[in-house]
Amino acid sequence: MNANRPAPGTPMIVQWRKWDGSPHWSNEEIYLGSDRWGDWVGQPQGWRSYRPGRDFTASGANVTLIPHPDAGTGAADHALTVNRRHPKGMRIYIDLAWDLRWTGETDAAVPGGLPAFAQGIDMDLDVIRVVGERGTWVDDRDEWAEHLVRYGYPADVIAHLEARALELEEQVRAQVAPFDDATADVWLDRLEAFGRAR
């Protein structure tokens, strides 16, 4: 088992915050395991995602890849979520991130006391792929522009993430692994198997 990772099948939280440290999304997940791309967690249908002022349950199963950390920073710069069946046809949703890493720590601020094994900073920009005519695009550019001013993101962070968003958009559009269907479907099947076992 990798350091700071729970055993496969363990319930956990992926905890997000904003640049100023304020709380953002808490996602209830199950740790599934790892492959060449990184670590995978899954959210069964009906499990919660919540932040101050919003709370909802997953309409269908989804899995999230937290990529292997960058050798220089020790952290990942995005999280890839893939839905099996989504009411709006959303197959892929990528959160651009900063300092996304595995900590193995329990955050006292997380309701329910589940360990927040993975924590990161949500950086506004998202890459989305919807099955159908709309296709793939970079989303939330308006929020990104607003938060550049509000939070004063450093210039190197801005340059890295703006370039990374365009790179990820191109890879998602080309459906190269791990942004293809086959890679995530293996983990969606594993998530369903854990659900049956429980």
The number of distinct helices, counting runs of at least 4 residues, comes to: 3
CATH class: Mainly Beta
Radius of gyration: 16 Å
Q: Per CATH, what is the topology? A: FomD barrel-like fold
Q: Tell me the overall shape.
A: globular
* Helix proportion range: 10-25%
Strand content: 35-45%
Oligomeric form of this entry?
single chain
State the CATH superfamily name. Answer: FomD-like
Spatial gap, N to C terminus: 21 Å
Summary keywords:
FomD barrel-like fold, 7-stranded mixed beta barrel, alpha+beta, 198 residues
Summarize the structure.
It contains three helices and ten strands. It has helices at 141-151, 155-174, 181-197; strands at residues 11-17, 23-35, 38-43, 48-51, 54-57, 62-67, 76-83, 90-105, 116-130, 135-139. Strands 1-2-3-6-7-8-9 form a seven-stranded mixed β-barrel.
Structure characterization notes:
The protein has 198 residues and is α+β, with helices and mostly antiparallel strands. It has a single domain (11-193), classed as FomD-like (FomD barrel-like fold, Beta Barrel), CATH 2.40.380.10. It is built from three helices and ten strands. It has a seven-stranded mixed barrel with strand order 1-2-3-6-7-8-9. The protein is globular and about 50 Å long. The model has no long low-confidence stretch (mean pLDDT 91).
Topology:
Blueprint: E1 11-17, E2 23-35, E3 38-43, E4 48-51, E5 54-57, E6 62-67, E7 76-83, E8 90-105, E9 116-130, E10 135-139, H1 141-151, H2 155-174, H3 181-197
